[in-house]
Amino acid sequence: MHELPQGFLAAGGTCGIKASGKKDLALFVSERPCTASGMFTQNLVAGAPVKVSRERLPSSEIRGVIINSGNANACTGQQGLEDARWMTALAAEQFDCRPEQFLVCSTGVIGHLLPRAVLEPGIPIVASTAEHSPQAFHDAAEAMMTTDTASKQSSRSVRIGNQTIIISAAAKGAAMIAPNMATMLAVVLTDAELNVDQASSWLRSAVDQSFNCISIDGHMSTSDTVLLLANGAAGVRPAGADEHRFREALNEVCLELAQSIIRDAEGAGHFVTINVSGLNSNQDAARIARHVADSALVKTAIAGNDPNWGRIVSAAGYAGVQFAETEVCLLLNGFLVYEQGLPTRFDAAAVSQALQSGEVEIDLRFASGSGSARFWTSD
Amino acid sequence: MHELPQGFLAAGGTCGIKASGKKDLALFVSERPCTASGMFTQNLVAGAPVKVSRERLPSSEIRGVIINSGNANACTGQQGLEDARWMTALAAEQFDCRPEQFLVCSTGVIGHLLPRAVLEPGIPIVASTAEHSPQAFHDAAEAMMTTDTASKQSSRSVRIGNQTIIISAAAKGAAMIAPNMATMLAVVLTDAELNVDQASSWLRSAVDQSFNCISIDGHMSTSDTVLLLANGAAGVRPAGADEHRFREALNEVCLELAQSIIRDAEGAGHFVTINVSGLNSNQDAARIARHVADSALVKTAIAGNDPNWGRIVSAAGYAGVQFAETEVCLLLNGFLVYEQGLPTRFDAAAVSQALQSGEVEIDLRFASGSGSARFWTSD
Q1: In the predicted model, what is the mean pLDDT of chain A?
Q2: Cβ atoms A202, A247 nearer than 8 A
Q3: Is A169 left (phi over 0), alpha (psi -120 to 50) or beta?
Q4: Structure confidence at residue B176 (pLDDT)
Q5: Which of A131, A189, B85, B216 has the fewest other C-beta atoms within 10 Å?
Q6: Are B47 and A325 in contact, with CB atoms under 8 Å apart?
Q7: ω before A58 within 30° of 0 (cis)?
Q8: In this complex, which of A44, A74, A326 lies closest to B323 when CB atoms are compared?
Q9: Of the candidates A67, A26, A23, A70, the residue with the CA atom closest to the CA atom of residue A49
Q10: Which residue in A119, A113, A143, A180 sits closest to A28, CA to CA?
Q11: Cα A193 to Cα A114: distance, rounded to the nearest angstrom
Q12: CA–CA separation, B156 vs B254, rounded Å?
């Protein structure tokens, strides 16, 4: 169980969107206005909730987030936009604030209108259960799930002066070969006091090193969203050395959730970490890491515990980053398998055995510069 | 059986590179010097034969191509380069020309040195069987195969003045989940007379509309190569209206081979054509077509005969091409399933039935301009 930061309530319950009767409505609410920022899918075909939330951020007036699972409210046209705004209005009504002070996320099937008939009675009922408790936070995390097999939460506390601030987050993941679109949602809450610029740039940096470094199917969903709400209830503002520690904790929370999404990927037998180093820039390194992570042939090899260095090296070769073939080294779970453009005489059976552990570490080392990146994927 | 153009010999036989004892050495030889051009993999990690052939092209002195299967001679360092040059020298010796007049391709496992001990006696033996016959051409096409289930040939004849010129080509394909790298090789031969500029620009244009429009696993191999040899033996130069007809025949030969590669893709149950139209440029259309073709989620849906418009539309949405969501129309095998940003009320069972035929036509229509593209893939 994870604590909520001070001044936050949560709730998770069942409206009846999902035929299974499982929880399908989550609320995260702050007793006072929050500084908030968000990062959203780059897909041009974005769900209605993405459009509505995006236009309200960044902000220093946000009071909460309403999330439904079971229906993505994407590819739903003008009616979808009206439904998303209507959801925020109904949520705001329960907590005595304006509709514009609520953000909204939806995840599930696309191309179907939201069932207002079940949400209209459901939202007030679930809202009435909102409370400041680990259980309520857990319920909310569960209510975000679609094909996830377990709810995903993470939290950190950071001592600032004589105060302890908390960063707590909940996420839902994406699953390969899921029946629906593979959407990733995460909500990060903190009782630290941040201004809008801090919330925006610190969230971007944390997401770039976590959620933007995971790849399951390479298919960007219409609804991916990460939100940060900071309500300042702890009464302290991270500055100086505290800023560094706060941001480190924020990064850790995002990274832990991103990794748990990979570990929960449907049908995956291996958790794969890809380290790329020695490029001219971090961007170049990330490009190569992403191409390796997205390669279907690399995934197939890993699924079969096959130490197929050729697929990894050649995926690096078409990433669009310049390097000399003779400067590449590749290690698989610590075994040097490729060096200076040539495979080594490695013990294939021993490497395959190491891959069978389910934890795979791909280390691609170049000699161009000091740029590096780390990615995570599944097979 | 396909005819060879005038003045060309071919041979295909067994050296012993493949443990199976199947044919593994192909030769295409012209009795006179050819104008030749080539297009090669963009992968930075290129096989030694790619490097050697690339540095010899374009040329007006080429006499032939030697190809082995069973070993890609890629990731083989300096020794690999020496081996590739040695192969051309041995081939050139059999046909009384200089090593630089031969091109070389290799396909198969990567990271292993070529077995000179079997090639040294094998090359002269196979070369001694070279002849101008459909059977020899067929044998050569077979000797290029790796995981292909059938050899791939195509030819066209074009009447120019009172002469008939022939364009004949052989290719080997790529297979998803192949044990080795998925390499595509094609050799196009013609007895028309071309200059170097024509050979280069016409081949590029034909490849851009054929081999560059197919996608199986999105993984670019270290050895992909397309070669064009024109020996002028028919004594005519395509010009004016004849140029148009010649290029059309060249495009057709390349397209037929590219499509046969898709149809032969290992484990594929569907042949998928992706038409994208109405973008600002052909490049934009091709970008979207490639993203749809490469999407693992789209392939999975097609494999299951699932008319999953959401995966197709959202793959278009992350291609990096600007368009308005409300202008997109999608047809699956002629059924309108998505229009102006919304799914239609289509008959899912009827569309699924249509997909079960194994022939899938995805039509994505935009309203930005007149740019279009056509891609082919398998599930």
Answers
A1: 92
A2: yes
A3: beta
A4: 47
A5: A131
A6: no
A7: yes
A8: A44
A9: A67
A10: A143
A11: 35
A12: 11
- pLDDT confidence of residue B269: 85
CA distances from B359 to A32, B36, B214, B352 (A): 58, 36, 15, 12
Helix, strand, or coil here: A75? coil
Torsion angle, CA of B145/B146/B147/B151, rounded to 10 degrees? 0
B343 close to A (CB below 8 A): yes
- Strand positions, DSSP E, B191-323: 214-215, 225-230, 271-279
Q: Which residues pair with A363 in a beta bridge?
A: A275, A331
- Tokens 């969203």, located at residue: A225
Tell if the CB–CB gap between A222 and B297 is shorter than 8 Å.
no
Token representation of residue A87:
């959801």
How far apart CA B174 and CA B263 sit, in angstroms, is 10
Best residue in B83, B212, B297 to probe A by mutation, most A CBs within 10 Å?
B297
User: pLDDT-derived band of residue A181, with 50, 70 and 90 as boundaries?
Assistant: very low
> Quick check: A77 and B341 CB within 8 A?
yes
SS3 B188: strand
Distance CA B130, CA A236 (A): 84
Alpha carbon distance B104, B123 (integer Å): 13
Q: What is the pTM of this model?
A: 0.87
Integer Cα distance of B336 and B356 in angstroms: 17
Q: Which of B219, B313, B342 sits opposite A296 (nearest CB)?
A: B219
Q: Which of A21, A22, A13, A81 is nearest to A50 (CA)?
A: A81
Q: In 10 A of CB B197, how many CB atoms?
A: 11
The residue behind tokens 């890491």 is A289
Question: Complex ipTM, two decimals?
Answer: 0.81
| B183 annotated active-site | yes
Place of tokens 């890609």: B72
Instruction: Report the distance separating Cα A325 and Cα A316, nearest Å.
Output: 10
